[in-house]
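Appendix B. Raw example, untouched.
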Amino acid sequence: MMGSRINSHQLSNGLFVSGGRPDQLKDRQPTMSSRAVPYTGGDIKNSGELGKMFDIPNSDQGPPPLRTSRTSSSSSQLNTGPVRSGSGSGPLGGAKSSGSGPIPKRHSGPIMPTGLITSGSISSMTGSRSGQLEPSPSMGKTSYGSVVTNLTEEVKMGFKVSKAVIWFFVVMMIMCLLVGTFLMVAVKNVIFLIAVLAILGLMLIATVWNCSWKKRGLLGFLKSYSESDLSSARDSQCVKVTGVVTCGSIPLETSFQKIPRCVYVSTELLEYKGWGGKSANPKHRCFTWGRRYAERYVTDFYISDFQTGLRALVKAGYGFKTAVLVEPAKILDVTKDNRDQSPSFLQWLSSRSISIDDRVMRLKEGYIKEGSSVSVIGVVRRHDNVLMIVPPPEPISSGCQWFRCLLPTYIEGLVLTCDKSQNSEIIPV
């Protein structure tokens, strides 16, 4: 060839090509050696490069080599050995690493057994405290807004007797008295007048009996009210459901004891009035306890029926009329002698601008906590596949209870009762 010899060879078809023969080419050696990676079983110490990222010595390679730094002799003494999360090891916080020195490693924290990288040390995660840090209770009045119903009025219950019937009996008794008086004067016969007076006496006794047993009779009627099947209940049907309570979007908290996650809370301040004492309210009589202040709230909640297992939304908030028949429990009695022993009670009074004035006071508090077993009487509503129980449009009447000699008694609103006391066992939800 011209000037230089070019290596070439002839193929089987007679064509000359440049380059050497294929059988003369040598196998190229691999540029990188590979070896089988052993199964580590999740152990970081046997994971190779992953362990090096967090300065964990490899079981196969021994301890990591010592590090050197070119900044100063003092910094080289600090940087000898693996970097730890303590303040006395690792590179100086204010020194910037140059391109010739090693890049300091920033630790996110230890690797937990689950593989999650967390912040801080394991000892800080376990903590020296065994419980949560509870905030100091605030005795100020809580404002819930329009979502929660403020029960400012008493539960409305009374006798459901027609006014026409009442006026008929009044007119008849007046006529009987006039006739009896006339017979006694004209005929000198007092038997008819005595019979009329006996009838009047019986009517007076029946009235006093009904007034005294009105609430007890109504509670007995509500307790004996038959349970309803929610799965087959129709819209606008009055039902009674008993089940476990679950809080809705806004749980409540008691005012004094600060018991969380309640659907109903009640705090009452009562005062005892002696002879010539100050009245707590206009209807306060002597030698009785009168209510001076009250906080009663109820909100929407869920109830899980014991019979069917269905879950219904009870609409008790947003100003719906609700009758909660739960007796509050006595918390403490405060007199002039022991009032200094209750600083939390004095703080509670001060936050509500209530003066004590050397009065005998009693604080009561009631609640329905999440997990309690309650009974609800209301009307079924279904809206967008949501089962709800709303207040009935008409008052609920007990009817005549002849064996108890009680007249028909009515109660207005959604009825909510809790048979068990607050100290009973709560079902976890």
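End of appendix B.
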